[in-house]
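Bumping my old thread because nobody answered last time. Still need a sequence for this structure:
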């Protein structure tokens, strides 16, 4: 929080910080900076809201190493703002930078939230719907901008259920190339059909080509990924209806 903040900015920022902190399990550091003044609050306006945090634990097994989020000009509920609760009268655009460590991501992959997301990821294999029920999933970062993924579980269709173990590596999309699948290896089971691989890549292509993805009332898109040795940095654009701990949670759920 800036030492040059007005008294009203300090009050609103401190109250907003307290409310966000109450919705987190733990946080090594959390700061909320609301830039406004009394006259703008009365008029239902604020120049911007910034959220920065480190070591945020949203819920069991969901952790964010670092987040920085900033909005543009926003229209707020003036009465709520006086008490430090930033309620938006209109949707607002935001930019977020999030760092997830490899450990954070692999811990999140054990959560019910992520396991349910993976399980509800149907593939159309030659007109047959196939779903995947994970038993174990983890990522690894082999270097050179690549992401690796290990998974074991049950592939289910109306006709049969098969147990498979798979290891794949890929390069995320950049400004110069699309998502590139580098390798797919069957580690357990009878093998992977070409049709299943194509169905998986088609699903990824569909998601990647959407201008925005939706999570509850939030529209977002990943604009850049930086792959490090032990972490991934996400740059996101989002159109959000509220500034709260739920925004931090939604960002952590992306991938």
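Sorry it took so long. Here it is:
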């Amino acid at each position: 929080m800036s030492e040059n903040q007005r008294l009203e900015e300090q009050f609103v920022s401190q109250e907003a910080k307290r409310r966000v902190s109450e919705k987190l399990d733990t946080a090594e550091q959390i700061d909320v900076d609301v830039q406004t003044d009394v006259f703008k609050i009365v008029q239902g306006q604020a120049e911007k809201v910034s959220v920065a945090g480190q070591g945020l634990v949203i819920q069991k097994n969901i952790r964010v190493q670092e987040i920085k989020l900033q909005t543009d000009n926003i229209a707020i509920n003036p009465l709520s703002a006086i008490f430090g609760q930033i309620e938006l009268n209109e949707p607002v655009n935001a930019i977020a930078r999030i760092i997830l460590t490899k450990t954070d991501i692999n811990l999140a992959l054990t959560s019910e939230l992520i396991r349910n997301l993976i399980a509800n990821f149907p593939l159309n294999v030659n007109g047959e719907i196939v779903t995947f029920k994970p038993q174990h999933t983890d990522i690894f970062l082999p270097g050179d901008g690549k992401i690796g993924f290990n998974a074991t579980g049950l592939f289910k269709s109306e006709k049969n259920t098969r147990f498979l173990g798979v290891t794949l590596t890929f390069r995320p999309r950049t400004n110069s190339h699309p998502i590139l699948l580098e390798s797919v290896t069957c580690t357990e089971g009878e093998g992977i059909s070409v049709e299943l691989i194509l169905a998986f890549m088609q699903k990824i292509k569909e998601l990647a080509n959407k201008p925005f993805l939706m999570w509850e009332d939030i529209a977002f898109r990943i604009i850049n990924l930086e792959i490090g040795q032990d972490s991934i940095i996400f740059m996101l654009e989002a159109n959000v209806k509220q500034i709260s701990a739920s925004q931090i949670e939604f960002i952590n759920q992306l991938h």
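The chain has two domains: 7-102+212-252, 107-209. Let me know if any region looks off to you.
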